[in-house]
Design goal:
heterodimer, A: 610 residues, alpha+beta, Aldehyde Ferredoxin Oxidoreductase,  A, domain 1, Aldehyde Ferredoxin Oxidoreductase Protein, subunit A, domain 2, Aldehyde Ferredoxin Oxidoreductase Protein, subunit A, domain 3, six-stranded mixed β-sheet, 17 strands, 40% helix, globular, B: 93 residues, five-stranded mixed β-sheet, two-stranded antiparallel ribbon, 33% strand
């Protein structure tokens, strides 16, 4: 099989050695790569009941056949681990040269197990593995860490690093590489628990592709289309463009989802930021779109320049009631510097803000308590979280655990699914997304579902039947799984005429394995079943597929979202997926979708009782 | 027989707003097709990127939202009370 090496590198931090392990071509044929491959390796190495912050929890980095082929946006690395936030699969994706460097080592993936005895830098230099002391790097932010590592080892290395938040075990700590974050679900906390401050990777040759001229031609064509109308929003304004429109539609989560409109939204809108704060834009590794917009504070205070996405903007802006764009920019920069997911950070602070507004005793001095609309208190809280100081030690646990600790009814406004805080879409008015968030394998996530596209379009009638909505949610998940496993950026999704046909053609040209649209569709479903199967092995039950009670109150609307309506949608979704009524996967279904033989190929855990 | 709806306010979001340097434009038309054409006349900055100057209709990548319903139907009929938004058809991020 072209486009891959057919092996991965397993590094045991406790033993201090790395071992190449063969990887059957069947794995790539059935699961493609990226998130599919990372999920497969996680499932192989993570025992049921593993402590997410213990040595048994593997940390997996995976590439795809498309990495290094010149296909625009495809230089992404997938990360999978058992999430310390949710206790189920934690999969993240980020674009960077790290993906290229890892693929150049002669391995398609890196599986890190065990725990180093002391702060460590893992160096993967081609087929050589070394562990170096990293105590001198502790306390550095991820960018400074990468710079220090490259100064020590040489500029040819690419670096993944954690910040202070990862060192201190903030449950939503991120892994940073080239300034991009594998942010959601807390992989940085897992890396920190392994005493791994950074990973440096350097390699040599990329694997061959089956049809070099065909790949180059298709890549050129896709690159040209990436500059067309399908990505104009991302290129011209970035995802921040969502904010004003969402506010107008009543979809902008405000003050911890107490409202869907923010009275000061225009002050922090993408359009305002573009005209008053933007300094430039950048593209990720091997990307022609260039969606990463950078902004600078302009209030006479210390100048901060940072990138900003819609999710960061809503979480640190409207969700906390903060209307000063300069404060939001500083808060975004702090999350990056500390190395933590801005959505979960902002949402957990917003939970604390609502506690304060309701007079709930959090058990910390008043000066430490963040308040809605108080930007300074937001900035203080973020610093406290990153260092786990004072109230930050509580908030570093995330909203679910913090609410369980504080009690006093605060669980009622902890806005998460399975422990992962909600993204910036109010699901009360987005019924398909509501379902997608509830059943999402990694918790409340718009990137693994994107079911909002069915709601924010004319594809579904407002009163669509449950089964139609369930099918739309499943289709959205499957397409996301294919994109994430081929490591193609989702911002490219509207640049394809027929996504599955063109992606299948690309896969065929790269790997030499004849692949059809239907093959890719089945792969998407297979990958989502694989992730679900992992969750079941870790204790998932149907009761975990739910939304926070605040979102199910109906709000006086006779057609509003209620617990009963959501339950019906979930049942319809399980039927569409071919699952049992309790959401478990029949063993026969694993055979039908071609997953059982993937397990049989390389795992001793295929016979696990579901 | 069609009735022109005078003074339809079209709220702009994203690229249309940045190009027009206005949050809304007021135009006349009874259908979205007429409104799109009128927008191009009222704000020539929209021609090219947002409105096709020859077709006098939205370019690919943009859509109207009328009373919270997404539509690219140029024959869609408007009422005096219609709420009309012009946005990117690429949802979310």
């Amino acid at each position: 099989m072209h486009g891959v090496h057919g092996r991965y590198l397993r590094v045991d931090l406790g033993a201090g050695r790395g071992t190449p392990v063969p990887l059957s071509p069947l794995v790539h044929q059935r699961l493609l790569g990226g998130i599919g491959l990372a999920s497969y390796l996680l499932d192989r190495y993570c025992p049921p009941g593993a402590d997410p912050l213990g040595p048994d929890n593997p940390l997996v980095f995976a590439t795809s056949p498309f990495v290094g082929t010149g296909i625009t946006t495809a230089s992404k690395i997938a990360v999978a681990t058992k999430s310390p936030q949710t206790g189920v699969i934690g999969d993240s994706l980020s674009s960077s040269y790290l993906a290229l460097a890892l693929k150049r080592t002669g391995c398609d993936a890196l599986v890190i197990t065990g725990q180093a005895p002391r702060p460590t830098l893992l160096v993967v230099d081609g087929d050589r593995v070394a562990l170096r002391p990293a105590a001198a790097l502790l306390g550095l932010d991820p960018v400074a860490t990468a710079a220090a590592v490259r100064a020590e080892l040489g500029a040819g290395f690419r670096v993944a690093a954690i910040g202070v938040a990862g060192e201190r075990g903030v449950r939503y700590a991120a892994i940073s590489n080239d300034g991009r974050l594998a942010g959601r679900t807390g992989p940085g906390a897992v890396m920190g628990s392994k005493h791994l401050k950074a990973i440096a990777v350097r390699g040599g040759a990329l694997p061959s592709v089956a049809d070099p001229a065909g790949v180059a031609a298709a890549a050129r064509d896709l690159a040209a289309r990436s500059l067309g109308p399908g990505s104009a929003k991302y290129r011209e304004i970035g995802t921040a463009a969502n904010l004003a429109f969402f506010n107008r539609m009543g979809l902008l989560p405000t003050r911890n989802f107490q409202a869907g409109q923010f009275e000061a939204a225009e002050a922090i809108s993408g359009e305002t930021l573009l005209l008053e704060h933007r300094t430039g834009k950048h593209g990720c590794a091997a990307c022609t779109v260039g969606c990463e917009h950078h902004y600078r504070t302009r209030d006479g205070g210390p100048v901060t320049e940072t990138r900003l996405e819609y999710e960061t903007l809503f979480a640190l802006g409207s969700l906390c009631g903060v209307s000063d764009p300069n404060t939001v920019l500083r808060a975004a920069a702090r999350c990056d510097a500390l190395g933590m997911d801005a959505i979960s950070a902002g949402a957990t602070v917003a939970w604390a803000m609502e506690c304060a507004a309701r007079g709930v005793d959090l058990g910390y001095p008043a000066a430490e308590i963040p308040r809605f609309g108080d930007g300074d208190s937001l900035l203080r809280a973020l610093d406290a979280i990153g260092h786990r100081q004072g109230i930050g030690d509580l908030l570093a646990e995330g909203s679910r655990r913090a609410a369980a600790i504080v009690g006093q009814g605060s669980e009622g406004w902890a806005m998460h699914v399975k422990g992962l805080e909600l993204p910036g879409y109010d699901p009360r008015k987005l019924r398909t997304l509501a379902l997608g968030l509830a059943v999402g394998t990694r918790g409340a996530c718009h990137n693994r579902s994107s079911a909002y596209e069915a709601d924010l379009s004319d594809r579904l009638a407002p009163v669509a039947a449950d089964r139609a909505r369930a099918a739309a949610a499943a289709d959205a998940e499957d397409q996301a799984a294919v994109l994430d496993s081929l490591t193609i950026c989702k911002f490219l999704r509207h640049c394809f005429g027929d996504f599955y046909a063109e992606a299948a053609d690309l896969f065929t040209r790269v790997t030499g394995c004849a692949t059809t649209s239907d093959d890719l569709r089945r792969a998407g479903a297979r990958i989502n079943n694989l992730k679900k199967r992992f969750n079941i092995s870790q204790g998932w039950t149907r009761a975990d597929d739910k939304l926070p009670p605040r979102l199910l109150a109906g709000n006086g609307d006779p057609d509003g979202l209620t617990a009963a309506r959501l339950d019906n949608l979930i049942s319809a979704y399980y039927q569409v997926r071919g699952w049992a009524a309790d959401g478990t996967i029949p063993t026969s279904h694993l055979d039908e979708i071609g997953l059982a033989d993937v397990f049989a190929e390389g795992s001793t855990r295929v016979a696990r009782d579901l | 027989m069609t009735t022109q709806v005078a003074g339809i306010e079209v709220e702009l979001f994203g690229v249309p707003r940045v190009l027009a340097r206005q949050r809304a434009l007021r135009v006349t038309g009874s259908t979205l097709g007429e409104v799109a054409a009128a927008l191009g006349v009222a704000c020539p900055a929209l021609i090219g990127a947002v409105i096709d100057g020859e077709l006098r209709w939205l370019r690919e990548g943009y859509t109207f939202v009328v009373d919270e319903r997404f539509t690219r139907d140029p024959a869609y009929r408007l009422a005096a009370s219609s709420s009309v938004l012009l946005v990117s058809s690429v949802a979310g991020g």
